[in-house]
């Protein structure tokens, strides 16, 4: 059992939790994730680590309530417990060789980007950040990130804050205004990562993305998280979650992410119907 | 008294009924049936059956106790060498081991040793079993990596010798393949749970949700004060065929399919929150026990048609005869001498499976006749789920995080066969992590040998 030390709502349906998990905190590195299970009949879901403190022994997660499990998780309060919480899983992000980085986070994808920005900042690297969100209300971690980067740009779909449009618009403007980056890290919805990669490929900027496919165990055992990268089948849980964005088959990943849409509807209808 | 040539039959659920649910198929003996079967044993002076048992259960002795109706004594004798009798009585390939060596087998049926072992353990499922008292502590700590058959056996043996044993398990539940792999209808999870609970009585500490190699490293276990480590991390990495279409929606590894159903109880979706695709036409590729388990599970989830696709003939199938028999009884279709060459998709979902006919050539390195494709014999069958049950290889997490641990080209940990000692001082290994996918009982045997070796080493320090 893993105690929830702190809980906050960051945006509509986006929540932050600080979880007591000393063993995970001891080892957590930027880019790694955990798998949790809320309750006995619950599903195992992966969530990328948003922050951690090995001395205080906690790990924080940020999640959007999009399915049954994240909604169940969101209902837990401070002082209550998460049944299972295992990690850190996956490989740590390879950040040490980077000097001048543009980090692009879309929606709740800002959360996994946060420890990477923090790490790069602490190593004294040049970091610019683009945050993308549906609207002003959905922009998360802005203040924390502002203090860790050289320039912060915000784009919202509806223009309620920052640039009106997509992160790719901002990316394009930056490059065309003469900004130079030796690497881009993009984390967010698959479509966003796909569009960013299309653009950075044109500009010839190496780009890392973080994949978040459907998983069960997170240790290489089930193979459910397979991603095609440069024509090779890789397991996001043990070979990733970071991959070269220019080599990822995003269309396949999008398709695979839809695998249980029908079941999710069935589950949702069932609960609405009051059977559970 | 004349010898009875036939085994006392064991009741089973009717195939037509059981194919619709996950309840256990084989129902076990009653006390009367068990005594009747136990009395068939002629109590050989030199019992060959024991030599066929990887953990050397004192078979004639426990059967003798049963023949006299003393179930408690029978279980006590079994547990001297085997702490998972309800599991082994169900999933051991007795026909290849103890029962194969039974002298009665020369003229008729061998004694049903497995069924008797199961009976002795099951008898106490809902009765109070005399508790095993923890041994007096010797103050030495041993870490066990993996809560599957190998690890649990090593843990039990070491705890009985007074060691302070901690089992680290990556999943949220203990049992390894017993809980994620073998289905409820063959091995009820309550049975596994009960036998694991008994290990707690021996004083074993269990830490779930710890992935050794990630959460904690082998080298760190020594820093924490463990004096020896046994690695029984299993063969978790699923193999695929590397044919076109394997990443289509609807293609599973048997590992994923069975884990969703068994460990995560997807058969009870949506009450249980983990989904699994319920296909109409399901194809399982492979001919082992795992393939049978996946096929029979698919049937129980409501598939109209379930096929086993196997490249050799039925004679070469590695699955136990009993499993093949059960699968056939339930209506699984066997497409033997058939091999998939492509999975065909439509809008990203499986729509068919293209196979080629095979014929058998000369024996290969495994001694079985090598399957050879028949040119031009490709054909397509309609399908919506394809499950790859063609084997697994050892999980690389430990190998990758443990400097100095020697492994083979295919990822198996290299050990001394007698002791399980690895190339790294104080680290022992056994089970599928060493051999690649094998049986529960072989893993248990390896756990036992390693426990003995660890004891010899630590008691001489």
Structure in words:
The complex is a heterodimer of chains A (276) and B (461). With 276 residues, chain A is of the alpha/beta class. Helix content of chain A is 29%, strand content 32%. Chain A has helices at 22-27, 68-75, 110-122, 142-146, 167-176, 190-203, 236-239, 250-257, 261-272; strands at residues 2-11, 14-20, 33-37, 45-53, 58-64, 81-82, 84-89, 100-106, 126-133, 151-156, 163-164, 183-187, 207-210, 226-229, 232-235, 242-244. The model of chain A has no long low-confidence stretch (mean pLDDT 94). The interface between A and B is large, with 42 and 40 residues.
Q: Helices and strands in order, then pairings?
A:
The complex is a heterodimer of chains A (276) and B (461).
Chain A: E1 2-11, E2 14-20, H1 22-27, E3 33-37, E4 45-53, E5 58-64, H2 68-75, E6 81-82, E7 84-89, E8 100-106, H3 110-122, E9 126-133, H4 142-146, E10 151-156, E11 163-164, H5 167-176, E12 183-187, H6 190-203, E13 207-210, E14 226-229, E15 232-235, H7 236-239, E16 242-244, H8 250-257, H9 261-272
Parallel strand pairs in A: 8-9, 8-12, 9-10, 10-11, 12-13
Antiparallel strand pairs in A: 1-2, 1-6, 2-5, 3-4, 3-7, 4-5, 13-16, 14-15
Helix pairs in contact in A: 5-6
Chain B: E1 11-12, H1 15-18, E2 26-28, H2 31-38, H3 48-51, H4 59-67, H5 71-81, H6 85-91, H7 98-101, H8 113-122, E3 141-145, H9 149-160, E4 164-168, H10 177-180, H11 189-201, E5 205-207, H12 218-223, E6 228-231, E7 237-238, E8 251-253, H13 254-261, E9 281-285, H14 289-300, E10 305-310, H15 321-330, E11 333-336, E12 338-346, E13 349-363, E14 369-373, E15 379-382, E16 385-388, E17 392-393, H16 397-401, E18 427-429, H17 432-435, H18 440-459
Parallel strand pairs in B: 3-4, 3-6, 4-5, 6-18, 8-16, 9-10, 9-16, 10-11
Antiparallel strand pairs in B: 1-2, 7-17, 12-13, 13-14, 13-15
Helix pairs in contact in B: 2-4, 2-8, 4-5, 4-8, 6-8, 9-18, 13-14, 14-15
